[in-house]
Amino acid sequence: MKTWEELTLSDNFIFQNVMQDPEICKEFLEKLLNISIRNIAYVDLEKIFDVGIESKGIRLDVYVEDDKNSVYDIEMQTTNSPADSLPKRTLYYQSLIVANQIKKGQDYQDLKKTFIIFVCTFDPFGAGRRVYTFKDLCLESRDLELANGSTTIFLNAKGINGDVHKDIEYLLELINGQKAQGDFTKRVETRVDEVKNNDKMKVSYMSWYAEEMRIKRLAQIEGREEGKLDMIKNLLSVKTPIEFIVKASGWTKEKILEIAQSENIAYENN
What is the pTM of this model? Predict the structure, then answer.
């Protein structure tokens, strides 16, 4: 756990709170996408999509809508491990955001344009670009776009190639630990200082971190239990003596037999 004093713009908690400033968030989107937005509205702070007990829910860092029928999910990403699988994660995010936009009886034309924006402290694709923008294109005709309204963008704080708005370049440098340059980035830096000097924010960070740790512990427990369940099923399928399964899993004999019955595994109670 980082101390409150160690946190910077590259840390998720600080980044979220900076982007909760509507003027900074709006200007960030305008400069990144080269568009003009009249206003933005925060749908939820840390928007949560819970899609059912059997499906993986998601919690979005910054989720906003604009006056042009578009929604934006902005995420700070500091790790690049296989478990994160960023391209597949963006696909899942897109699908859940889109699925939650439309209700029974609505036309598909009612779907908003969706932008998934990952701000990375590393180069996610190793090409040295400051920005990577992805849309669905026809392989046989690259100038033909599948106009489904979805765009995925990765910003790379380590990038050195590619033209972006100067203020976006400065912002990436600030995230990478360099000195603030330009009016926009200096306002971002001022906002970071405002957050860091707010005692209520410090208390909120402690609560936020405790909740993050609780969620991770639950995920670890669920992962271990799920792995144990798979092991039990495998042992049952090869007729392993139940006393051995009880010892290996720590589960009761009755529970193991229930699993065998629910999985339709023919198993003699020996």
Answer: 0.75
